Q: What sequence folds into this?
């Protein structure tokens, strides 16, 4: 198993992004010795505001905080999820625990799921949208899983670590929420969520130059990739309007 592949390519324009997708996500990269059933189905993408940040789900990132031990984190994870299911029973009474965990993830609960998307533009948006990270380079990940798991068919617990399930699984959710649907979301389940992902065959990382993040965000807005379209609720609309009317360009004379 090889470490994450680094490249000389740096994303500073949408044209460079499309060039990368054309070169690295071409069907020509499929191994010709694989049968159709063995071949991976689709490329997935992930954007991160800080190039140096590890590939870890939200609860895994807590382990880097002094006093946050893995044991306490995993206990808090299960307790918070159990309480969420009780307090939101009328909203989350249907579906297995993986479906409920996916919904919780997209509403901000810290979980062992890592967000990916089938859309490179959506991934790029999440790498450049947070202006608190505009002073550092971002990361853009490209990967083609060997297989996806239908989240509806999963029978074991999301917190089970003693079974035969592989260390990472890529989960296909049904269109259970509008937010997951419009973001073309797919989830990576971590069997051991406090263990940083440093090796995965075929995983490629590109750098997004910090000085171009603001322009990239503006270009994405012009293409219809915005808070309003990716968060189709009042939260997303409010963020969208804040970005338009309360940024420094709006107040320039």
A:
């Amino acid at each position: 198993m090889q470490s994450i592949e680094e490249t000389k390519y740096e994303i500073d324009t949408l044209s460079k992004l499309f060039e990368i997708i054309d070169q690295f996500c071409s069907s020509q990269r499929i191994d010709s010795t694989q049968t159709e059933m063995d071949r991976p189905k689709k490329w997935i993408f992930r954007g991160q505001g800080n190039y140096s940040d590890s590939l870890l789900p939200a609860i895994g990132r807590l382990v880097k905080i002094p006093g946050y031990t893995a044991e306490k984190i995993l206990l808090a994870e299960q307790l918070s999820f159990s309480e969420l299911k009780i307090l939101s029973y009328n909203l989350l009474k249907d579906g297995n625990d993986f479906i409920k965990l996916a919904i919780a993830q997209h509403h901000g609960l810290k979980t062992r799921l890592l967000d990916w998307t089938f859309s490179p533009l959506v991934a790029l948006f999440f790498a450049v949208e947070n202006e608190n990270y505009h002073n550092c380079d971002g990361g853009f990940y490209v990967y083609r899983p060997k297989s996806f798991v239908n989240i509806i068919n999963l029978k074991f617990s999301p917190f089970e670590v003693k079974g035969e399930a592989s260390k990472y699984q890529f989960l296909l959710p049904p269109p259970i929420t509008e937010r997951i649907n419009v973001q073309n979301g797919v989830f990576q389940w971590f069997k051991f969520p406090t263990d940083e992902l440093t090796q995965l065959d075929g995983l490629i990382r590109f750098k997004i130059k910090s000085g171009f993040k603001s322009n990239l965000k503006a270009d994405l807005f012009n293409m219809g990739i915005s808070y309003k379209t990716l968060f189709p609720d009042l939260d997303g609309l409010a963020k969208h309007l804040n970005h338009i009317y309360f940024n420094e360009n709006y107040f320039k004379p």
Observations:
- Confidence is low (pLDDT under 50) at residues 32-40.
